[in-house]
Amino acid sequence: MEILVKISLVIHIAAGATALLVAPIAMVVKKGGRSHAFWGLTFFWSMTVIFITALFLSTVKWIPFLLMIAVFSYYSVFSAYRWRSLKKLHHGQQPAWYDWVAMTVNGVFNVAFFTWGVVLIIRGVSGPFPFLAIGFGIFGLLISKDNLQLFRRAHEPQTWLYQHMGGMLGGFIATLTAFSSQVMNFMPTWLQWSWPSVIGVPLISYWIARYRRKFRTSGSSING
Questions:
Q1: Contact 150, 163 (CB under 8 A)
Q2: What is the pLDDT of residue 224?
């Protein structure tokens, strides 16, 4: 078992490094082109490997925080990937059964994540982790809530793009957070875990707002 754990850890680290390298490339190349699709797909499969190995490592070594972060970050990327195939929801297209299952599993895990953080605070556990658990839990629940609402009601044609961008960039932030928490030990613990979100979340909001203004003024579109 110990050998399997070591192999899984090596694969986990390699996949994480790959995700960190290819995500910025996917961000800067032309959206909707082959290069964007290639690098984006490479990022998605890297995140899939990260998720699988994190599930194994967190279960074998029983690291609840790693388990919940794995679910939170992967659903963000999985959802973003699926939105490329859900472009016609505003025309009556229905999500696949696994879209509903993934959304529900993510919601359950993030309720547990949030609750765990509250319990840690009640027990008097010090440090940033109780508050990080609450914060990640809230963000994870918001992703499921947004998808639930969009699955059930009409929305603007380019919503799939906004969800795709937000999810992929959110997954990148999660990967960057994991890297920071393990490598940037010169920072205070709370800053190691929080700076990617503090910088990244406002940038995601800015980029989505920028695209929304562009589409509303020009009527252009990206078919991805």
A1: yes
A2: 46
Tokens for 33, please give them. 């082109």
Distances (CA, A) of 15 to 46, 93, 106: 5, 34, 22
Segments making up each domain of the chain, as ranges:
2-91+156-217
Give a three-class secondary structure readout of the chain: CHHHHHHHHHHHHHHHHHHHHHHHHHHHCCCCCHHHHHHHHHHHHHHHHHHHHHHHHHHHCCCHHHHHHHHHHHHHHHHHHHHCCCCCHHHCCCCCHHHHHHHHHHHHHHHHHHHHHHHHHHCCCCCCHHHHHHHHHHHHHHHHHHHHHHHHCCCCCCHHHHHHHHHHHHHHHHHHHHHHHHHCCCCCHHHHHHHHHHHHHHHHHHHHHHHHHHHHHHCCCCCC
Q: What is the pLDDT of residue 112?
A: 92
The whole-model pTM stands at 0.88
Q: Which of 137, 139, 146 has the alpha carbon at shortest distance from 108?
A: 137
Backbone angles phi, psi at 92, to 5 degrees: 100, 0
| Residue 12 one-letter amino acid | H
